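Researcher: Quick test of sequence recovery. Tokens follow.
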């Protein structure tokens, strides 16, 4: 039995195949055009600036914190097929497209992981609680330090790049590095020291960065007859020079990784490290932390604080006399363990308290001191030190009278306050070491076993040292390889005990 095939269906299928083929050819041509533009931009940058390696780039950015703090990176999903929406239809957003966030203190480990990928981005900032077991969230509320200010410019052609380098604003505010990231470039202003980003200061910091970004909205030539090369519409337009409105916690493509077309992201050193105060002064925006009013207030505050300390010394003298005469009793918490380590842990981390949590933190430290049996006089001294530090650091000031209000909670009821409540008031998490849900007896038994293992290991080390030393006494000219083969040890073990 023969089946009749409609000729219209055959023609429709052929048209779909032709349309699909034309779309693929168009996409391939566009990719080749972008790759040629990338190579042309590299040629322009190599002719004017020195190319730097990824390690040099991030060593310059993170400086002393390169191996001391956690660095956050994100791996976005780049394996999906790239499709363009049909005319009149919007592209659907995937909730999973945000990617997977990772962290590591070893920058070489991050580069080894991200360099073969085209979806790798790194954060030029440090987030609070990143050194603890709990993962810090990569948002503005957890932002702690900012290492660099980055201007992200998209759709930069080689002609645009040549004009950008010669422009007056580029020469006036010379970036530390310029990165060829694919279709655009990144102008990176690396700071000579990390900028502490308190939550209440972030609006002012963003206003300064926005002013720097606006200077590159237009390309103006450096000549006498200056002409505007490109004045893009603030709204997004495809395939046109534009400066992205990025966030303070925006991640940027990893230097040394791949672009969307499979080419290596390159970076070039163009200038020097910046002070954030100088950057703010050049764009004409005053940051309160460096203002004369702040310096004047601090001087007046030191004078007022001296008076408060004199009054406190008189109060202590009077209180000691009253205790000695038996009129009052010293404040001590009944049935409280002398656990001073927990108080010292919270005391060291009081500098992490944000501006909006300071009064709550004073209450929380009083509760912790009551739980640990800390003397109230010593507690008052530490609280004064906290307030002095915060008032030097923050714009809004804490009145020293808040200390008296917080000390009212130095009482028996403080013993019932939960750790979760204290974490909420402090604004940071406590470091917890898990015992893998073991009972106390099991945990003690495991500790004894670990101690026995250490003793056994120490005994093995002593035997290995004696063997190496005895062999060297008989054969003083023996090589490391010969000793290792004879004694059936590794070369590293022989080197370890040879000169000990």
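Model:
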């Amino acid at each position: 039995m023969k089946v009749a095939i409609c000729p219209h269906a055959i023609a429709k299928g052929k048209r779909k195949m032709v349309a699909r083929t034309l779309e693929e050819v168009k996409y391939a041509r566009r990719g080749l055009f972008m790759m040629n533009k990338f190579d042309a931009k590299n040629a322009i940058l190599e002719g004017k600036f020195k190319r730097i390696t990824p390690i040099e780039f991030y060593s310059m950015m993170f400086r002393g914190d390169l191996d001391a703090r956690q660095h956050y990176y994100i791996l976005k999903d780049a394996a999906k097929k790239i499709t363009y929406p049909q005319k009149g239809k919007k592209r659907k957003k995937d909730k999973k497209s945000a990617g997977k966030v990772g962290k590591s203190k070893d920058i070489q480990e991050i580069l080894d992981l991200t360099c073969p990928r085209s979806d790798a981005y790194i954060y030029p900032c440090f987030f609070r609680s990143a050194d603890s077991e709990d993962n810090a969230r990569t948002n503005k509320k957890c932002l702690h330090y900012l290492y660099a200010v980055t201007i992200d410019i998209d759709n930069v052609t080689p002609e645009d790049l040549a004009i950008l380098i010669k422009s007056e604003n580029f020469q006036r505010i010379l970036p530390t590095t310029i990165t060829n990231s694919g279709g655009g470039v990144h102008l990176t202003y690396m700071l000579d020291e990390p900028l502490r980003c308190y939550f209440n200061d972030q609006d002012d910091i963003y206003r300064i960065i926005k002013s720097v970004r606006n200077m590159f909205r237009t390309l103006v030539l450096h000549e006498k007859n200056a002409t505007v090369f490109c004045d893009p519409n603030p709204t997004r337009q495809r395939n046109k020079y534009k400066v992205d409105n990025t966030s303070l916690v925006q991640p940027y493509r990893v230097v040394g990784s791949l672009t969307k077309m499979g080419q290596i992201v390159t970076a070039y050193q163009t200038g020097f490290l910046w002070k954030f105060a100088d950057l703010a002064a050049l764009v004409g925006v005053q940051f309160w932390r460096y203002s004369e009013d702040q310096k004047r207030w601090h001087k007046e505050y030191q004078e007022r604080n001296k008076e408060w300390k004199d009054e406190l010394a008189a109060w202590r003298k009077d209180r000691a006399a009253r205790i000695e005469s038996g009129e009052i009793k010293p404040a001590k918490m009944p049935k409280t363990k002398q656990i001073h380590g927990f108080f010292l842990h919270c005391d060291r981390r009081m500098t992490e308290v944000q501006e909006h949590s300071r009064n709550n933190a004073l209450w929380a430290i009083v509760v912790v001191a009551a739980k640990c049996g800390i003397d109230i006089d010593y507690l008052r001294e530490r609280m004064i030190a906290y307030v002095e530090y915060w008032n030097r650091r923050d714009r809004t000031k804490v009145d020293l009278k808040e200390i008296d209000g917080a000390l009212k909670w130095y009482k028996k009821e403080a013993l019932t306050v939960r750790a979760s409540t204290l974490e909420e008031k402090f604004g940071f998490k406590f470091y917890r070491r898990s015992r893998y849900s073991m009972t106390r007896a099991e945990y003690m038994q495991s500790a004894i076993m670990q101690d026995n293992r250490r003793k056994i290991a120490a005994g093995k080390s002593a035997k290995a040292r004696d063997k190496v030393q005895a062999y060297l006494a008989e054969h003083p000219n023996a090589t490391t390889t010969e000793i290792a083969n004879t004694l059936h040890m590794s070369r590293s073990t022989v080197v370890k005990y040879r000169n000990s």
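The radius of gyration is 32 Å.
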